[in-house]
Amino acid sequence: MSFYAKHVFFCCNQRDGGERPSCNAKGASQMRDYAKGRIKKLGLAGEGKVRINKAGCLDRCELGPVVVVYPQGTWYTYVDETDIDEIVESHLANGKIVERLLIDQPA
Amino acid sequence: MSFYAKHVFFCCNQRDGGERPSCNAKGASQMRDYAKGRIKKLGLAGEGKVRINKAGCLDRCELGPVVVVYPQGTWYTYVDETDIDEIVESHLANGKIVERLLIDQPA
Questions:
Q1: Model confidence pLDDT, tens digit, residues A28-40
Q2: CB contact under 8 A, A56 and B55
């Protein structure tokens, strides 16, 4: 079993200029902080449960802002707290993937 | 299938003081850069292959420095480039877990 049942990595890469878009310029760090707070408040944080982390560039910038949930390998994009709420409450709390936010088609 | 066959997160958290040890104070950022360079040199970087990332605190500080490989959920510690070489060449290139560096007992 995985140490964390759901280990969530927010790309928080900050680009200043250049051709590729920047997840962090679209609010990634704030949304990561928001998700972390929600998970803590719901009592879902810790071993065997959920961990929220920031990460460097996940190299899917054009689809960003992106977040990936492991070990499931589920990639999402999001716009605002409403989207984060849905990922938290549906996927992280209840194991149900949020299809409308997926960036990859289901296999 | 996972977008990256092996997605590797190095805890690069820097703590200045406090009771818990700091992965970054033990060379995590340098080892992450070293691993990234090795993967690139071996032609293993990219979609369907390997991605090396830095991450914030993975909350296993006492066992650090730590690195986790997803979607397998394999957690390692390491000391130096020799250990990173073994993780790269055995696990990341050839799919064979490096048992001596595991921080969790195999299930």
A1: 999 999 999 999 9
A2: yes
Q: How far apart are CA A71 and CA A88, in angstroms?
A: 16
Q: CB distance from B104 to chain A under 8 Å?
A: yes
* Token pair belonging to B86: 């073994």
Q: Measure B53 CA to nearest chain A CA, in Å.
A: 6
Put simply, the answer to whether A56 touches B51 (Cβ < 8 Å) is no
pLDDT for B52-85, tens place per residue? 999 999 999 999 999 999 999 999 999 999 999 9
Burial class (CB in 10 A: 0-12, 13-18, 19+), B98: middle
Chain A CB within 8 Å of residue B9 CB? yes
**Distances from the Cα of B53 to the Cα of A9, A80, B37, angstroms:** 10, 24, 12
Q: What is the DSSP string of chain B?
A: --SSSEEEEEE-----SSSS--TGGGTHHHHHHHHHHHHHHTT-BSTTSEEEEEES--S-GGG-SEEEEETTTEEEE--SHHHHHHIIIIIIHH----GGGBSS---
For chain B, say whether A14 makes contact (Cβ under 8 Å): no
Please tell me the pTM assigned to this model. Answer: 0.96
